[in-house]
Specification:
Layout: E1 3-7, E2 10-13, E3 18-25, E4 33-39, E5 46-51, E6 58-60, E7 68-73, E8 78-83, E9 92-99, E10 116-117, E11 121-126
Parallel strand pairs: 2-11
Antiparallel strand pairs: 1-3, 3-8, 4-5, 4-9, 5-6, 7-8, 9-10, 9-11
């Protein structure tokens, strides 16, 4: 079965850090670029960054630039989202998506209908 699984979410205080993982099973992740999105209650899914197949190119939304870092370990078939200096407004369900694009830029969510998507992981930042 081909799937992406996000993990690493949880509850953290404002200013804290979390590292999310996006692990692939059933396919080779280094065949794809990876984009991260988040969706807060009542809001549209927001793109926050992406990484190329090799990991050599990354791009970030202004809202997370300088705080979030995307990396990948293709040997482990996993992509990571390191989130530092977290704020309450970062509270959302975080998703990864694997598709054939070449950043920059990161693809809009409405272009990823045929991508592999994970089920999401909840991140809650308390003030």
């Amino acid at each position: 079965q081909l799937q992406l699984v996000e993990s690493g979410g949880g509850l953290v205080q404002s200013g804290g850090s979390l590292r999310l993982s996006c692990a692939a099973s059933g396919f080779t992740l280094d065949d794809y670029s990876i984009a991260w999105f988040r969706q807060a209650p009542g809001k549209e899914r927001e793109g926050i960054g992406c990484v190329s197949r090799s990991g050599g190119s990354t791009n970030y939304a202004d809202s997370v630039k300088g705080r979030f870092t995307i990396s990948r370990d293709n040997a482990k078939n996993t992509v990571y989202l390191q989130m530092n200096s977290l704020k309450p407004e970062d509270t959302a369900v975080y998703y990864c998506a694997a598709d054939s694009f070449r950043p920059p830029p990161c693809p809009p969510v409405d272009t990823l209908g045929r991508a592999f998507w994970g089920q999401g992981t909840q991140v809650t930042v308390s003030s």
